[in-house]
Amino acid sequence: MREGYYTRRDVFLGGLTCCAALAGGLLFTGSSQWTQGAEAAGSRDNHLQLALRWNGLDFTWLPDNTRLAIASTGGLGIVETSNGQLNWRKWSPIDSPSSQNSAPGTSTVYWSSDGTKVMYTTATALLVQDVLTGQPLWSHRADQSVASIAALSPDGIRLALSQSPSVSTSSHPVVSMQIWNVQAGRLITQFGERSTPPPVVKSILWSPDNTRIATTSLEGIVQVWQVSDGRLLWSADAPTVGLRQAISWSPDGSTIAFVGNGTDGQAQLGLWDALSGQLYFQTPALVGFLTDQLWRDNQVAWSPDSTRIGFSVQARSGLLIEVWSVQRGLRLFTCQPGSGQSTAPTWSPDGKYLAAGQTVVGSGELVRGDNGERSIIQFWDGHDGHALFTYSAPKSPQRLTWSPNSHSLAIITPRAYGALASSDCLSLCRYGYNDYALEVFRVA
After folding, report:
1. Which of these, 170, 266, 151, 156, lies nearest to 215 by C-alpha position?
2. SS3 297
3. Interval 108-135 mean pLDDT
4. Per mean pLDDT, which of 43-52, 57-66, 426-435 is the most reliable?
5. What is the side-by-side strand order in the sheet with 255-263?
6. 87-101, 185-199, 353-367, range with the lowest pLDDT
7. Highest-scoring range by mean pLDDT, 161-170, 173-182, 365-374
8. How many other CB atoms sit within 10 Å of the CB of residue 257?
9. Whole-number Å distance between alpha carbons of 133 and 156
10. Which of 21, 43, 208, 383 has the fewest CB atoms found within 10 Å of its own CB?
11. Residue 243 above 60 pLDDT?
């Protein structure tokens, strides 16, 4: 079984955007840990612009299309993709005695849509920071007696914070949703639903226009709220969605995709009208939990104009990527099959390409440090699914992330597969991916 490079954690401020540290220490212990991509590009592929050692939490593109913001447990950095130059700084102090020394897996990251604001959390505290200046915007210390979930708005100005008491203190408990202006440092409004027992919020997801939030709960309830007045717009309960549910807004905010319990190894993917909650359609799909930020490779791919979605399905011939019409609820086309097992697709911001990692598993010997995988990134025409071209990647490319102008694609990929313990541990060895890299490709 593959060992992923992220670990889920539904704890403090992490139910929505969980991201755990990779094995093997901190990212920013010195620039010597980073390797400029020129040498790798010369030997691998003339489209490979940069290949850097990766042990971080998360990354995102900045609006200038030439830099990546990178977060680790040790700090926040900006890397120039043209030459690999990295500038970094430690996180601003958080008012918590253990904020910088949390146990592994307790740190989470969430970005504004343009990458210029970041929300960083530990097991006991939360920080919102300006990425470009390094200035702290807002901080919050957690109350350990409540379960807390937070999400930064796409514009980076506001933050939604839900705090649910772990033990009911009254016969009519209130689940409170707070909306903070992180730039002004003040509480704007708060609202919630009075119920017994209270629903435990699992995730919060802002609409792209910053006016609504959608929440999921451990009880299987999805709710959509108007942020300005705290009005509940609509709700869907467990019989419709299933206890294991996840959601994703379309780019224009008109539609919400959800994942519910399915059969035969495939979940049920469906679409709601975001204003009314009206169900458009449901269909089996191989998609994961859309509200986990760093499992974005398992989600549906929205076309930039919000009219189509792409996702993986299991067919007799193997795993295929289908594209469906949102309004009509019909399959438009199936991407031309490639060799190997695909990750979920991702749509370029200009709508021109669909891309996915393709992994071909061979017969390599684990004891030789290789499971025989030979991987590529496959590009299809975003309009008809015709296969266009491929780029080589070391192994199991994941976290495909487009630059805003669609000219570059960044991925996380492991460069080796072998024992994660000592080489002489014999039958007790644990095998998996290691030696991760952040790679940036120029797209033809």
Report:
1. 151
2. helix
3. 91
4. 57-66
5. 246-249, 255-263, 266-273, 279-285
6. 87-101
7. 173-182
8. 23
9. 14
10. 43
11. no
Q: In angstroms, how far apart are the furthest CA atoms of the chain?
A: 67
Question: Both tokens of residue 187?
Answer: 């509480």
The residues, ordered by sequence, that sit 6+ positions from 225 with a Cβ below 8 Å of its Cβ are 177, 191, 212, 213, 214, 215, 231, 232, 233
**Per-residue tokens: 402:** 């487009």
The two tokens of residue 305 are 């104009």
pLDDT in tens, 264-294: 667 788 899 999 999 998 888 887 655 444 4
- Confidence at residue 398, expressed as pLDDT on a 0 to 100 scale: 86
> Which residues, 6+ apart, have CB-to-CB distance to 403 below 8 Å?
61, 65, 349, 409, 410
Strands lying side by side in the sheet with 186-194: 146-152, 158-165, 174-181, 186-194
The answer to whether the beta carbons of residues 112 and 153 sit under 8 Å apart is: yes
Q: Which of 29-33, 107-111, 230-234, 259-263 has the lowest mean pLDDT?
A: 29-33
Distance in angstroms (rounded) separating the CA atoms of residues 122 and 104: 10
Which run of H or E residues covers position 238? helix 238-241
Helix, strand, coil % (nearest 5) of the chain?
Answer: 5, 45, 50
Q: Are 345 and 355 in contact (CB under 8 A)?
A: yes
pLDDT of residue 202: 82
Q: How many CB atoms lie within 10 A of CB 147?
A: 21
Four-CA torsion 169, 170, 175, 180, nearest 10 degrees = -70
Q: What 8-state DSSP symbol labels residue 27?
A: S
Question: In angstroms, what CA-CA distances link 439 with 31, 68, 327, 400?
Answer: 17, 11, 36, 10
Give me 6's structure tokens: 């992220």
Segment 137-154, tens digit of pLDDT: 999 886 665 667 889 999
CB-based contact 307:327 (threshold 8 Å): yes
Q: From CA 408, how far away is CA 402, in angstroms rounded?
A: 6
CA gap 224, 236 in Å, rounded: 9
pLDDT reading at 330 higher than 70: yes
Locus of tokens 């076309």: 303
Neighbours of 66 (CB within 10 A): 15
* Arithmetic mean of pLDDT over the chain: 77
Q: For residues 339 and 345, give the distance between their C-alpha atoms in angstroms, rounded to a whole number.
A: 15
CA dist., res. 289 & res. 17, Å (int): 11
Lowest mean pLDDT among 49-58, 231-240, 273-282, 345-354: 231-240
Are the C-beta atoms of 25 and 436 separated by less than 8 Å?
no
- Strands in 301-302's sheet, in edge-to-edge order, are 301-302, 308-315, 318-325, 331-334
